[in-house]
Amino acid sequence: MGKPTGFMEIERRDRRYEPVADRVVHYREFVIPLPESEVSEQGARCMDCGIPYCHQGCPVDNLIPEWNDLVYRGEWREAIETLHSTNNFPEFTGRICPAPCEAACTLNIDDAPVSIKTIECAIVDRAWRENWIKPQVAQRRTGKSVAIIGSGPAGLACAQQLARAGHQVAIFEKADRIGGLLRYGIPDFKLGKELIDRRMAQMRTEGVEFHTNSHIGIDIPMSRLREEYDAVVLAGGAEWPRDLPVPGRELNGIHYAMDFLTRNSRRVQGLFVSDEEFINANGKHVVVIGGGDTGSDCIGTSNRHGAASVTQIEILDKPPEKEDKGLTWPEWPNRMRTSSSQEEGCERMWNVATKGFVDDGKGNVRALKYVLVRWDRDDQGRWQMSEVPGSEGEIPADLVLLAMGFVHPAHEGMIAELRDAERLELDPRGNVKGTTEGPRAYHTNVDGLFAAGDMRRGQSLVVWAIREGRQCAHSVDEFLMGHSDLPR
Length: 488
Known about the structure:
This protein has helices at residues 6-9, 20-23, 36-44, 53-57, 64-72, 76-84, 90-96, 100-104, 116-129, 153-164, 181-185, 194-205, 222-228, 257-268, 293-305, 325-328, 340-343, 414-422, 454-457, 462-481, and strands spanning 16-17, 31-32, 145-149, 168-172, 208-211, 231-234, 240-241, 254-256, 285-289, 309-313, 347-349, 352-359, 365-377, 383-387, 393-396, 399-402, 406-408, 449-451. By secondary structure, it is α/β, with parallel strands linked by helices.
């Protein structure tokens, strides 16, 4: 590294947010970047640690010490080339990745990891400003064609890699715009959609075709794609939400989180959503069930609507404020985290199990009935939940948002057709079955049919989807050509 003592001389600095009062009145990104001179200084903190555990923490295998050093030296153009060698879309991960690389950083032993995510975002944002990012058009065409179903990060990464290898690539998306979860599932205040549009323009020049309003298995039979293309990749999301079958679930005002988020995002992006379809949190007591990222997005959106109150409940124990580094590092630790949306205002409750919902007498939800729970290990060391006697209570609720995760991809339509016609195999969780290693990596049990991202692994992170899309592209290229020069 260019400055081996940098981590001893320079304190960690990171991006800041606009004040809460300023940002909750709009849906724009509100992160305040570091000046480039400070980003270079932060790159100098990357120590010559011998074993870069940040590599272990990063699903796409980013060459983190290399581009940290390049930024420190002011070699920004070389830094974007290094960054792009492992990650097609660092402007996405530089904004919405939870940064497991920073948790794995050697300096995180002292709670001061290198600001890896900030540096990554600064590299790609500068590269776009300087017009360094150009389409990489294949020098030759293979004559082979690939259909990719789903335009989220896995499908986009897979498509871009295959187009650069010279294949004819078409993406089919059931929604009216490209991007999958990135487009409508993640709020605009976390990820501006112009970033997706910019990449789409690059990919179009590289030869990728985009087909929206194309619901495979519903509007277009899968059999047609199997006949017209040499390979097909299933890269849709794990969209089937986990439900909460308790008394009162049928009441008005109880919605899946993604219905709330996507309808709001469509309005923010200028698309028509009727008042009857729109889910409005204005003036309401909102309860969000689930403590993950989707729940946080519901909190941020509810606050921008002008909710009267927001309460987030979680059935698990409250995490510790600080992890035991001797037991957890360099793995991702279970510890207390507060998202930017939670910072904007909400009450958080742990060890809360929902028992039912209370009717206002007109078919609308009025309150959530709960009981506190505790978690103890049984004789086999397994965690068991039990209710705390006498701990029942109610939370006022005019709007309840179910953000408890997703169980598997939707089975109706495409997967049902493939199971009937070609006996497509699913894993025990209901995802499309496939491995990530060996000669049949990302193959399904059906010849010429591949699966990657949440469709294969279940609900996960954007960075994992990009990894799987890239690796799947290598397997598809090898299947079509007998070998592949694409990175894996």
